[in-house]
Amino acid sequence: MTDQREIVVVRWPGQGPSAIELAELLAAYHLRTEAEKGRPVVDVDGLPDRYRAEILDPRGAFLDGVVLVALNGDTAVGCLVLTAPVDGRSEVKRLWTDPAFRSRGVASGLVGAALAHSAENGVSTVRLSVWKWRTGAIALYERLGFTVVASWEERDQLVCMERAV
Description:
It is a single chain. This protein is of the alpha+beta class. It has helices at 19-36, 49-56, 58-61, 106-120, 135-143; strands at 7-12, 66-72, 75-82, 89-97, 125-131, 147-148, 158-164. Strands 1-2-3-4-5-7-6 form a seven-stranded mixed beta sheet, with helices on both faces. Strand 4 (89-97), helix 4 (106-120) and strand 5 (125-131) form a beta-alpha-beta unit. Helix 1 packs antiparallel against helix 2 (49-56). The longest helix has 18 residues, at 19-36. The model has no long low-confidence stretch (mean pLDDT 93).
């Protein structure tokens, strides 16, 4: 039976889960992404150094950004990183929802909280990049007001999107 408690979004660190719980969400995100890119790895040790660093030390990796975590009771079920603003823009990174909690508004809640935080801090635009095969994520972003823009990424198959705050 699935727990139907309300999902609450909190800022991390300081509220919510331990670094270990956040690391587990980040590990799931990176392992799934590598598999989708056709480079599956068995565990965190097989990930590129930059991704492993985020998992091993999320506080240090996202020191300049804002980390939001979705909680179902005391359980971390989703995360999102919002970069520090540069020239009035912040970027959404590492949006992930535990598959057992998908279709319950977790991702929408995380993005909504990121947009609210951005508005409160004078950010004019929030942007993101998403792999083109993640059609569900692209549809979500479009529902939340993001539009496709010219790419700022060199990596092939990334769709760049943004929206005014």
